[in-house]
Design goal:
There is one protein chain. By secondary structure, the protein is an alpha/beta fold. It is built from ten helices and eleven strands. The chain has a seven-stranded mixed beta sheet, with helices on both faces. The chain has a four-stranded parallel beta sheet with strand order 7-8-6-9, sandwiched between helices. α1 packs parallel to α9, α2 packs across α3 and α5 packs across α6. It is elongated. Bound molecules: 6-O-phosphono-beta-D-fructofuranose. One of its GO terms (cellular component) is 6-phosphofructokinase complex. GO terms for molecular function: 6-phosphofructokinase activity; AMP binding; ATP binding; fructose-6-phosphate binding; identical protein binding; metal ion binding; monosaccharide binding. Homotetramer.
Length: 322
Amino acid sequence: IRSVAVLTSGGDAPGMNAGVRAVVRAGIVAGLKMYGIQDGYQGLINGDIVPLGRRDVSNILSRGGTFLRTARCAEMMTPHGQREAVRQLYNEGIDGLIVIGGDGTMAGAQSISAQGYPVVGIPGTIDNDVYGTDTCIGVDTALNTIMEAIDKIRDTAASHSRAFLVQTMGRDSGFLAVESALISGAEMALIPENPNITVEEIAQTIANSYKRGRRHCIIVVAEGFPIPMDELTVKLDAMDLGFKARGTNLSYIQRGGTPSAFDRLIASRMGFKAIEFLTTGKFNVMTALQGRDIVPLPIPELVGKHRGFPEEYLKISNILSR
Ligand code: F6P
């Protein structure tokens, strides 16, 4: 392998830039010619590929978002798009590809690898839903953002004796919501993996919290929970629970901002390892954080698998928030 391209794909996550910087600089030190692909897989299919030198990735370590930009690419889910992606790489004389993103991005990597092309994935998504890795680039920063937001919401919730529903991202995963609830002292996390919780049960939790003498009540609602947060808030507000109810959707704020120390650390380590894996013939693997190590996890072992939420965290959260 003499030349390698890197792209970021799917929802952006803080620390993706740190990952690109690590890939480019480690690649250059390994004697490779490095390229950046703009706008994710869409840019690859369109041939938006630029050479990247050491200085091109200066001053991005501390910046949120992704300077290569990203996109959601429906074409990459079709056999035609997948063939086109590989054709562009061969056209440019590029021998290997590193992709940074979530499970959709890894599925794209798999389709490229199936055509015999060397690829390595790096998990980057705030959803923390990628199977086989303890965490992904961006999760820690998003958790810090959510934690700060809920701390602020608690001030106003306590001042008005209100129950607040706070919606977090995560698509069809409750991981981010459960971790958010634990670190924010929330009374409850409503997640897609526990879809049968009723409005009455939620109301009971709020009423019990009022009866125990609490001045406020925080409930984290994952975006994938079947009852929409707004609908739930209106229903709860109309009930006689002690607390009136309000809702806040933290939305895209969770995806932005300066990456935390931890996200810069894992992004830098994973970027470095991705080059090591490619140059030592470990293809079609993802840089997975397992314990303290970053290991090459075969992408076919993780694509399409739903990563369960940490049940123990939910249990601890429920006990501690009483
Ligand atoms: O995958 C990251 C994520 O932020 C999810 O939590 C959310 O469901 C989705 O992306 C939003 O996607 P978009 O940026 O396309 O609106």
